[in-house]
Design goal:
With 202 residues, the protein is an alpha+beta fold. Helices cover 44% and strands 13% of the residues. A hairpin with a 5-residue loop joins strand 4 and strand 5.
Length: 202
């Protein structure tokens, strides 16, 4: 658990296209990690909401639907950030879609998960070298499908559009070797999600 220092963390970071986390990102990771632990302790599904969101009028009605199906679903986002177009496909459940592309994190505004999934997220968090939403989104790390409820049942307050969880600038200079490793890792993830999507369709 935790930052995972040393050479092993460096290789882990390169393998999964990770990087140094900001203090805000580490704090966010710790918050979600502790809530996953709480979910396991309670031994029941929980809903995790950030404090800068608002509830849509149909929020509780939608939660009733999720409560009925969460044991089979395991994990589902209640929204995601809309900075980029996300490729999704419908599932057998109404209003539930699966994200079928590699992402660099699409936020953690709100989601519901079971103790089984919470345990998988914790197992995938032995070294904190990726933002928490990167970890949650990456099926190849833990085997959990990235599902989202649509239409979204929560939204982000306008005052919170500029996140206080600062991410290091992408213009940071890196060595050619690190740059090459990151490019290879990114291609590896893209290839994995392309293969996964083809497998799910066939």
């Amino acid at each position: 658990m935790g930052g995972g220092g040393g050479v092993s963390a460096c290789f882990y970071a390169l393998k999964y296209e990770a990087r140094v986390l900001s203090a805000g990102e580490l704090g966010a990771y710790a918050s979600h990690y502790s809530l996953w632990q709480k979910c396991i302790q309670l031994d029941e599904p929980i809903v995790i909401l950030e404090d800068d969101i608002y509830l849509e009028p149909y929020f509780f009605e939608s939660l009733d639907f999720l409560q009925e199906h969460i044991a089979k679903i395991g994990y589902i986002r209640l929204s995601h950030n809309t900075h980029h177009k996300i490729c999704k496909r419908p599932t057998k459940f109404p209003h539930i879609f699966e994200v079928v592309q590699f992402t660099l994190g699409i936020g953690t505004m709100g989601y519901c998960l079971t103790p089984k999934v919470a345990h998988k997220f914790i197992q995938a968090s032995q070294k904190w070298v990726m933002p928490v939403d990167w970890v949650m989104d990456n099926h190849c790390l833990h085997g959990v499908r990235n599902l989202v409820f649509e239409p979204f049942i929560i939204g982000e307050n306008e005052q919170a559009m500029q996140s206080s969880i600062d991410r290091p600038p992408s213009t940071q200079k890196v060595s050619p070797l690190v740059w090459l490793c990151n490019k290879i890792a990114h291609f590896r993830f893209e290839l994995y999600f392309w293969s996964y999507a083809k497998m799910r369709v066939s």
